[in-house]
Automatic annotation (TrEMBL):
Highest taxon listed in the record's lineage: Bacteria
Keywords assigned: Cell membrane, Membrane, Transmembrane, Transmembrane helix, Transport
Pfam families: MFS_1
Protein name, per record: MFS transporter
Predominant localisation class: membrane
Residues annotated as transmembrane: 20-42, 48-71, 83-104, 157-178, 190-210, 230-254, 260-281, 293-313, 319-340, 352-371, 377-400
Coiled coil: none
Membrane topology: Multi-pass membrane protein
PANTHER family linked: MAJOR FACILITATOR SUPERFAMILY MFS_1, RESISTANCE PROTEIN MDTM, PUTATIVE-RELATED-RELATED
InterPro entries attached to this UniProt entry: MFS, MFS_trans_sf, MFS_Transporters
Cellular location(s): Cell membrane
Length: 413
């Protein structure tokens, strides 16, 4: 595997494929237990509440956010391959912990002690896969930014998203199949497969040639400074993440509460629109600039929330899901291409990490906030508030861009 100094004759898309494969692998592993570890294992097998079962899933995002704080700087200092290796190791550990959690009730019997031990191990497993996500996605993006150069930064960022959501979608399906192989210990085959994939990824990575870290001309950038630099772009991303997180977290419950069929179709359309926009439309970012594309994305998400609010039937749910997927799809790469331009390529790792944490934290916080809003004021108010927050991202982005040191491209500083 040649490094970034090689002469490429293939397209930018083909340049990112060998490295983005690792992102696909890890997100596939993330998807594997999503339909099993919360509802079937924590709730049905261990007997914990639905709230604890849901927290098992969301803990991954907390682990990811924790990891972002430290991995960006380490990528810039040690290079993306070194940190990607840690991501694959954490992925393997997560799989092993799933296996252990699955076996605890069988070895110890189902009692109060075994229930809490198994739950604790399952929760630690979720933290490890969150750390794996932060190491892997940030490393892969930084690595591919070096491979394609600043002129094609949207390609590097866009394909990370395609493999992320595509990997999760396929992983969930495969995980459901695997869980049926051992009906009494459903989580075990999922954990075994996750472990094997992690080990396979570590072995495959040894055949890749590392790229050298770029020398820094000054002192290392702190995470707080990186957050300040990307703040206008992160604010827009956070606003759009509210709409995305609301649909991702509550679409199933929305359909169930209203006794509608077609939930699988709605999720399928949501994912299809997301992937379609990333593959076929993301090139417009480099042509027209990230900010106007991002603002159009936020407007599209706001329209999606309005559809959920005003069209209270399965057709409205389908249209709203499609518009949410299409709107959020280009938001991350559009503002991400702007975020990485706020300083030199030697700081791409920490800038991507600082930018990405806006969506990690927003999804966790908004899921709790929107859930309380729905319980007290209903679906309509919840979707309306999400829509207002989406559109407000334009104003917040514009306001924060006026703060000295925020969002200024390096060549304009």
């Amino acid at each position: 595997m040649s490094d970034e100094d090689a002469t490429y004759t293939c397209s930018p898309t083909m340049r990112v494929m060998p490295v983005v494969l690792f992102n696909l692998l890890v997100y596939f592993v993330i998807g594997l237990p999503n339909a099993i570890i919360g509802a079937q294992f924590v709730h049905n097998t261990l007997g914990f509440s639905t709230a604890i079962a849901a927290s098992t899933i969301s803990l991954q995002y907390i682990g990811t956010a924790m990891g972002r704080v430290i991995v960006g700087h380490r990528i810039d200092v040690h290079g993306p391959k070194a940190i990607l290796r840690y991501g694959l190791i954490f992925c393997t550990i997560s799989g092993l912990l799933m296996c252990l959690a699955a076996l605890i009730p069988s070895f110890m019997g189902l009692n109060d002690t075994s229930r809490y031990v198994a739950l604790g191990i399952a929760l630690i497993s979720r933290l490890f896969i969150g750390w794996s996500e932060s190491c892997t996605s940030t490393s892969v993006t930084t690595w591919n930014l070096r491979r394609v150069g600043p002129a094609h930064s949207s390609v590097a960022i866009s394909w990370n998203g395609v493999t992320s959501y595509g990997g999760i979608a396929v992983g969930v399906t495969v995980g459901q199949f695997l869980s049926g192989l051992l009906p009494n210990i459903r989580l075990l085959p999922v954990g075994i497969f996750a472990t094997l994939l992690g080990i396979g990824g570590i072995i495959l990575l040894t055949f890749y040639k590392a790229i050298k870290p770029l020398p820094s001309k000054g002192k290392p950038m702190s995470f707080a400074l990186a957050v300040k630099k990307v703040l206008p772009y992160g604010a827009a991303l956070a606003a759009g993440s509210v709409g995305f997180g609301t649909v991702n977290s509550f679409l199933a419950l929305y359909y169930t509460d209203n006794h509608w069929t077609g939930l699988g179709v709605a999720f399928g359309v949501f994912a299809a629109c997301f992937i379609f926009m990333r593959i076929f439309v993301s090139g417009q970012i480099d042509k027209h600039g990230g900010v106007p594309i991002a603002y159009m994305s936020l407007v599209t998400e706001a329209i999606a929330m309005a559809v959920f609010c005003l069209v209270h039937n399965p057709t409205g749910g389908l249209i709203g899901a499609a518009l949410t997927g299409a709107g959020f799809s280009l938001l991350f790469p559009a503002m991400g291409t702007m975020a990485v331009r706020t300083d030199g390529p030697e700081f791409h790792g920490i800038l991507i990490a600082a930018y990405s944490i806006f969506t990690d934290l927003t999804i966790v916080i908004s899921s709790w906030f929107m859930g309380g809003l729905r319980d007290h004021m209903g679906w309509g108010v919840m979707f309306a508030v999400a829509g207002v927050l989406c559109i407000s991202g334009i104003a917040f982005s514009a306001i924060f861009s006026r703060i000295p040191g925020c969002g200024v491209p390096k060549n304009a500083a």
